[in-house]
Amino acid sequence: MSSSEVFRLVFGVLAGMALIPLLISIGRLMTVEVDDEDAVLVTSFGRLVRTLREPGMQWMPARVLPWVSLRTVSLRRDFRLFDDVHVNDARGTTLMVDLWLEFRIEDPAKALFGVADWDRALQNLVSHAATSILGNREFSQILSDRTELGERLQQDISDETARWGLKIERVFIRNVKLLPEVSRQIFGTIAARLERAKAALDENGRLAAAQLEADTGVKVAALVAEAKAQYPLAVGRAFSALRDQPEVLKAYQELYELSLLRPHRTVAFRGFEGEAMRAVDAAMLSPTNGETSGIAPLNGHGERMLNGHGERTINGR
After folding, report:
1. Which tens digit of pLDDT belongs to each residue from 240-266?
2. Where would I find the beta strands (DSSP E) of the chain?
3. Which CATH class is domain 87-178?
4. What is residue 198's predicted lDDT score, i.e. its pLDDT?
5. β-strands 56-59, 94-105: how paired?
6. Nearest to residue 34, comparing CAs of 10, 50, 45?
7. From residue 258, how far is each of 81, 109, 253, 311, 312 by CA, in Å?
8. How many CB atoms lie under 10 A from the CB of residue 74?
9. Pair 95, 88: CB distance under 8 Å
10. 31-34 and 56-59 beta bridge pairing
11. Is-contact 70 28, C-beta < 8 A?
12. What are phi and psi of 316, to 5 degrees?
């Protein structure tokens, strides 16, 4: 092989190697690569002429023309978090609500050309819908019915966003907060209610205890009166039974008379019924001022009285 042939061979190989990247670049200029969950909008002179949704490499030689442009729109699920949306409940209390939206672009042509800025428009729409729907509910209902209210917000927003090519899939009410000054007022109101409830419970308890004590006193008084009424009857029955036993009755009467004596105030002389000495004589012979032991001393005035049983009392008692 001559040197000229070798030169041509080497030149051909180098030219082929240089041509491959060029061909690849030309191929890329004439094709459009569409990713999964993406859409490519082809416009010519600013007018939409084609929408590519099929993933993969698609042949489009017109791409190299300067008046043809491509715009890629994501069809993946997206979300937006709207923090501190201010609304007033049915009573006029100002609330701050956090809303979570999940959506996807269903019609890329409408999302790109149907609205100038669908992101800002969506924010304004959500704020208006939250004000109109949550404004008819009280604070406690908003807290307890967040799932239902989220579904109502989704239905209300979906009708409007469908014109923009958006599909709202879920709406969540994440947090419901109060303004700091409103929180302090509510907490003060709750504290006052608790104090009133506590005072009412204390008063009701005191009245119930007093009523129970009064009812108990009435029942005890009735039982005591009934017991006192039964005592004379019981004593009468006992005396009726003692009449059949004269000795026992006499002993009881004697013990009863002795029980009536008061040792610290009375000196009694018993057993002087014979002719040797009477009870009166024995009383006259009793010493005063404690002259003998075993007999209680009389008072300083030495006053004495004898009862019918020969008992001497001091100071007329």
Report:
1. 887 788 888 788 778 877 777 666 655
2. 31-34, 38-44, 47-52, 56-59, 68-74, 78-88, 94-105, 166-178, 266-268, 305-306, 311-313
3. alpha beta
4. 92
5. unpaired
6. 50
7. 103, 125, 9, 11, 14
8. 14
9. yes
10. antiparallel
11. no
12. 70, 10
For 298, phi and psi rounded to 5 degrees? -80, 170
Contact at 8 Å (CB) between 149 and 133?
yes
Tokens of 73: 């729109």
| β partners of residue 233 | none
CA distance 169 to 167: 6
Nearest to 142 by CA among 194, 85, 192: 85
Question: Which of 112-121, 123-132, 293-302 is least confident?
Answer: 293-302
Of 149, 156, 147, 157, the C-alpha closest to 89 is: 149
Amino acid identity for residue 96 in this structure:
M
Q: Where would I find the H helices in 243-272?
A: 246-260
Report pLDDT digits (tens) over 260-317: 766 665 555 555 555 555 655 655 655 554 444 444 444 433 334 444 444 444 333 3
Rounded to 10°, the helix 246-260/180-242 angle is 130
Q: What is the pLDDT of residues 19-75, one digit of tens each?
A: 676 666 666 677 788 888 888 888 888 888 888 888 888 878 777 788 888 888 889
Give domain limits for the chain.
Answer: 3-74, 87-178, 186-260, 262-313
36: nearest Cα among 59, 51, 55: 55
Question: For residue 171, what are its two tokens?
Answer: 């709406």
Neighbours of 126 (CB within 10 A): 21
**Amino acid identity, residue 244?**
D
Distance CA 266, CA 314 (A): 7
Q: Determine the Cα–Cα distance for residues 240 and 235; give it in Å rounded to an integer.
A: 9
137 Cβ partners below 8 Å, 6+ apart? 89, 90, 145, 149
The number of residues making up the chain comes to 317
Q: Around Cβ 150, how many Cβ atoms within 10 Å?
A: 19
